[in-house]
Amino acid sequence: MSEALSIPEAAALLLEQKRILILTHERPDGDAIGSSFGMREFLRESCGCEVDVVLPTPPPTRYLELIGDYKTTLTPEEVAGYNLILLLDCANRERIACGPAVDPVLLPELSGTPMLNVDHHGGNNVNARWNLVVPRAAAASQLAAQIAIATELQIPKRAATLWLLGIVTDTGAFRFSNTLGNTLRVTADLLDNGADLERVVNAAYYSKPLNQQHFETELLETQEKLAFDGRYIYAYIPDELFAKHNFDMRDGEGVIDLLREVAGTKVVALYYRKGDSFKVSLRSKDQRYPVGPLARSLGGGGHEMAAGITLREMDHNQVEALLLEKVAALLGDREQD
Amino acid sequence: MSEALSIPEAAALLLEQKRILILTHERPDGDAIGSSFGMREFLRESCGCEVDVVLPTPPPTRYLELIGDYKTTLTPEEVAGYNLILLLDCANRERIACGPAVDPVLLPELSGTPMLNVDHHGGNNVNARWNLVVPRAAAASQLAAQIAIATELQIPKRAATLWLLGIVTDTGAFRFSNTLGNTLRVTADLLDNGADLERVVNAAYYSKPLNQQHFETELLETQEKLAFDGRYIYAYIPDELFAKHNFDMRDGEGVIDLLREVAGTKVVALYYRKGDSFKVSLRSKDQRYPVGPLARSLGGGGHEMAAGITLREMDHNQVEALLLEKVAALLGDREQD
Asked: Are the CB atoms for A136 and A180 separated by under 8 Å?
């Protein structure tokens, strides 16, 4: 059986537990890290609960200083020793990061330890014993904070800082459209509880490795192209550029913003080879020209304003030509007269 | 006589007026624009008041689309035709932008029209008939919004969007330490009233002219220097670089962030020649190494984490050497062993 909980119900459930195991999604980002470690701090310090977070693979370096120690391995026997598994920010079972010794798909049923699934992804299909899925929440960290606020217990500063990290990174520092009034009200409560905004901002936005800066500079100098009077800007990243600067796109979430921030552009694209295919990232700055349908027409997916495609059996010149054709149609080539 | 008002008192005073003249500071930035034009929309639409904004010099191009028409000139006779002058975001009389025909210093007394001075600068010394000066407010736009909220009247969407612009630009999109819980609660109310976050973010952050991007790229490629294991990063901007890219530092507020965003750096500096002196901008990323005292020791000023100096009778190599010496002392050269 699977049951939907309200925020106060989730709070009450957590307060009944003695030993809690916290898990999140693979390749943890700021919100996965923030929601998990923030909840660990809160449950340990304010509820006197024993809590472990497991991360089988290391988180981004920039967040290491904020989080402290954590478990890196997990066995089925260890899982059975907890009263509750708290899953945060993970939309489906396949993505649960629990290490090779535990099957993430069967984890909610076979371990004997019931699971509470707290998430903000609309498509969440974890179906745990208890579920709190709120797509209007900007971040899992926002939900974690709302649960803590509902307990009326003290929120430790470190927990407030970690949840702030999750909210800041998942909203692009309050620049994305998932930033709603309630997001800011919860964030206000975290600041009032001593969340360290300077530290979060430094970790999330002022921690660019120098090799990434050099990579980006050379990318703009050598690869940036404009079309349709600058309404479309795009760049191809050759393999050699990655190699030259020892840069990996796993750290490249912000690179496409270098194109997006240019005045007057409506649609931007960034693409690079990965194995025998091309990865294409698309962004729109104007709701009249959504990139979601364009991506879906080529087998890709994503949101209306941010989408991606994987293209096979093409070289980079063909990718360029295909995107130019599709973007021309999107922007309406009659406007070019 | 000069009287301090509370937010509800300022709201009540505004609601009694029929014709209001709104003024702000010279070289208006996002908050000057946002607070002024937001208040115009609110007082016109929700209070039925006649309101004019005067801007003797044009605002930044990126904000033009948000604000609509405005008056560019003002005579003493025109001033006398208003019931109230509402001054927003202006810390002293010398900086009031009212055009050449009106003396800004005498404006509050000689026009016969009383002035309400609403501002968030700690050092505000306007001493108008009525004053609402709240240094803890992140932006004058925040105060304008709080006044509107206090009236309990409807806040038009356009007013909410303009005040959001002021708050976003004065907080660096909620990244600066002036972002407090109350800042976010007021912003939440603006979003609930339909403020257009996408439009504000595009105007403030995704409107970089292409020449500025080229200027920045070449600056990083050719001028960025690291010292003290990268804990200090600095760049000198030669005159030729400004000329080559037709770039003016009046639009260069964000340039120093390109240095600040690098991982591991504690202090950054950017300097360039202006006339027969050098302008130096300094930023700290770590409260243990404040740049305020360094700037003051060289005759400059500013805040602890963001300061500036004007240096005379030096060439750029001497500026470089002087800053290296001062920053070495700040960072503690013993740590270099």
From this structure: yes
Closest CA to A233 of B214, B250, B296, B291: B214
Q: Are strands B306-312 and B301-302 parallel, antiparallel or unpaired?
A: antiparallel
Q: Which residue matches tokens 């991606």?
A: A308
Q: Which residues of A touch B198 (CB under 8 A)?
A: 177, 287
Residue A337: predicted pLDDT? 37
Chain A residues in contact with B208 by the CB 8 A cut-off are 261-263
Chain A hits for B185, CB-CB cut-off 8 Å, are 184-185, 188
The answer to whether the CB atoms of B261 and A285 lie below 8 A apart is: no
Shortest Cα distance from B225 to chain A (angstroms)? 11
- Which residues, 6 or more positions from B279, have their beta carbon under 8 angstroms from its beta carbon? B249, B271, B272, B273, B308, B309, B310
Q: Which token pair is B51? A: 């309101």
Cβ(B312)–Cβ(B276) under 8 Å?
yes
Instruction: Report the distance separating Cα B162 and Cα A290, nearest Å.
Output: 25
The one-digit pLDDT tens for each residue of chain A (337 residues) are: 899 999 999 999 999 999 999 999 998 989 999 999 999 999 999 999 999 999 999 888 888 889 989 999 999 999 999 999 999 999 999 999 999 999 999 887 877 899 999 999 888 999 999 999 999 999 999 999 999 999 999 999 999 999 999 999 989 889 888 899 999 999 999 999 999 998 999 888 888 999 999 999 999 999 999 999 999 999 999 999 999 999 988 778 789 999 999 999 999 999 999 999 999 999 998 889 999 899 999 998 767 788 889 999 999 999 999 999 999 999 995 444 3
Angstrom distance (rounded) from CA B88 to CA B43: 14
Q: In chain B, what residues touch A220 (CB-CB under 8 Å)?
A: 213, 217
What's the pLDDT at A333?
A: 57
Cα gap A36→A13, rounded to integer Å: 17
CA–CA separation, B182 vs B120, rounded Å? Answer: 14
* Residue showing tokens 């898990």: A23
Whole-number Å distance between alpha carbons of B250 and A335 = 33
Nearest CA among A44, A62, A61 for reference residue A53: A44
Architecture of domain A211-336: Roll (3.10)
Q: CB distance A205–B287 less than 8 Å? A: no
**Residue ranges of chain A assigned to CATH 3.90.1640.10:** 3-205
Q: Which backbone phi and psi does B281 adopt, to 5 degrees?
A: -110, 135
Rg over alpha carbons for chain B, rounded to the nearest Å, is: 22
User: Please, where in chain B does CATH 3.10.310.30 lie?
Assistant: 210-336
CB pairs < 8 Å spanning A and B? 107
* Å between A149 CA and nearest CA of chain B: 15
Which of A173, A207, A213 comes nearest B220 by C-beta? A213
- Give start-end residues of each CATH 3.10.310.30 domain in chain A: 211-336
Q: Give the Cα separation of A12 and B162 in Å (integer).
A: 42
- For the B210-336 domain, the top CATH level (class) is alpha beta
* Global pTM value: 0.85
**Hey, are the CB atoms on B209 and A263 less than 8 Å from each other?**
yes
Task: Answer yes or no: CATH 3.90.1640.10 is held by domain A3-205.
Answer: yes
Nearest CA in chain A to B305: A198
Length of chain B: 337
A205:B179 CB<8 A? no
Q: Do B181 and A175 touch (CB under 8 A)?
A: no
